[in-house]
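Key idea: predict the complex, not the pieces.
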Amino acid sequence: MTDQTQAIAVQSLAKAFGRTAVLQNLDLAMPAGQILVMLGANGAGKTTFLRILATLTRADSGKALVNGFDIASQPEEVRRTTGVVTHSAMLYGDLTVRENLHFAARMFRMPGREARAGAVARQLDIDRRLGDRVRTLSHGLQKRVALARALLHRPSLLVLDEPESGLDQVAVGLFERVLSDHKANGGSAVVTTHSVDRGLALGDRLVILARGHIVFDQPRTGLDSATLRDIYARYAEPN
Amino acid sequence: MGVLGPIWAIARKDLLLEFRNRDIVVSLLVFSLLVLVIFNFAVELTPVNRFVVGPGILWVAVAFAGVIGMNRAFIIEKDRDALDGLMLAPVSRDTLFFGKALGSLVFMLIAEAVLFPVFTVLFDVDILRVETAVIAAMATFGFSAAGTAFAAMAVNTRSREIMLPVLFLPVISPLLIAAVEATARVAEGGSWSDAAQWIQLTAVFDIVFFVAAAVLFHFVLED
Amino acid sequence: MRGTVPGRSIWLAANAALMAITLWMIFIWVPTEANLGVIQRALYFHVPIAIISLVAVVLVAIGSVTYLVTNRARWDWFAHASAETGVLVGALTLITGSIWARPIWNVWWTWDAKLTTTLILWFIFVGYLMLRAYAPAGGQGARLAAIVGIIGAIDAPIIYFAADLWRTAHPGRIAGPGAEGSMTSEMGWTLLVSMIAIVSAYSYMLVERYRVRRAEAAVEALSRDASLISARGASASRADVLAAGRV
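Result:
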């Protein structure tokens, strides 16, 4: 039943927090090797959707397979094959970058911690800061560490919630390279952003989420900035 | 056993963080020592009653230190949402529970290693014995198992600093009673058999709460 | 509004009538107990209330376990309603117990095993209600509360055992049950009627609280539907947006 050619297969996913319905009967299929960019205003449900894929939040109803694994019955396999970046760094401020990466590697029971932590640190150009406590790093550098941590266990799917927020120009360039390397190695990614232009720059496919629904879903090819911006504006106004 | 690695990694990480943040460890120890001193004035100790009253004061100090320590252990996880990072590890939720509980257990045992000798000196009640060490270890085991589950719950609420003691202290009251009584029996010069009933009660609490906390823990973490 | 309302009104009236009969039996009909005196009449309230407060602990646990297993909100409403009414009944148990203890044992409070257990359980369920107030809305708060509900019930026998053991270890510090009373058939009948009246009143409260929870959930569902309708309004224009996207 594990269909590895689908990175994500979601059927009628729904989630409500108290009085607010965040996701309503969301369906989405994404083949492996694709970079899907999800656009949406704040409160559209992007973060909740990604948290459900990452097994951090439980859906109220519906079904989702990630890398062919069921999020409800095989969450550990989902987590083993998925790298996640959220709005927070998910790091310990009083541990050094190296200690944070080693701790994550221990949690993933990875052999060769030292080498792998060094490799991801170099990939994100933070190898000179390995000995610094995370607390002392700027927001942008913490974000890089978070990304390094997400790459540590060589996930086949990256789940990235606004990965570029707080990154400077150099770091955005690094991130683009990381994403294209990941894709070149056969990896897939779901990336959220509110920027139409960044979405067009990063994605193979663009999806707009509004009020818990997918209201737009097109491949990158043939989309131009002005058209997409026009469509997005119709949905992006806050509720 | 592949789960032991992550369990130990969590406990080690927690201890590393606690001791790197020395201000917390120091203020926590000073606070529990102060509890011993203040109660010494609040309760008039005589050569006769100090064996009965003393262990009660000692365990109140330990309980306060434990509550503060376990609250800290989860506040660390809320800072930069590190708990989400833990939950993204490919291990089951009970592995996280065992790791956090082990960290709290070791941390409390270290605090007790400081408190017990000071108590012996200040109260002139000799509790530096094998019996008290075993009793303390058993009571601390149940304390950290139940406390870890409650601290994980409290950290998700508003006014989390006060929610933990309010929820947790009534629940562990039988364990506190047992620890106090067992310590008192032994401090009076009694043997294992004098404290046997209380040690049995501690063991029952330990088993019941270890199992209950481990089974219920994954419900705590979902949202 | 609906057909259930007259039924509940009849039940409410029956409760009032039963309670009036109970009061008449307790204060007028039943003879004063010879050894304990007038205060023994408090027993006709205290015993049924104390039994119900113990039942409430079990009801919260049943609701909590079933909620965690099935994830159905109605079991959470039931557990929550049982906890609220349980805290009320528990407080009444402690108060009537003190009224009883003062003339009989000469103290307002004594660390007897039953009293101690009732008090500590009462604190645990006050904590349950506080947790519900301070926890995030929705499923997470309900799950956290369910855990406290289950742990409270598991803890109850351990607390009782510890308090009992503690009492035997410190006999001098407990004012014990002193004078024993004897039960006549009138007393038996009074206790029985009081038991029925109080169980009925308690069940009524429980049902009412449950209905309030259900109504609150219905309001939540309505506002969810409202957001759904506005979202449908948005997706009605989806087709033309998709068309525009192909231009």
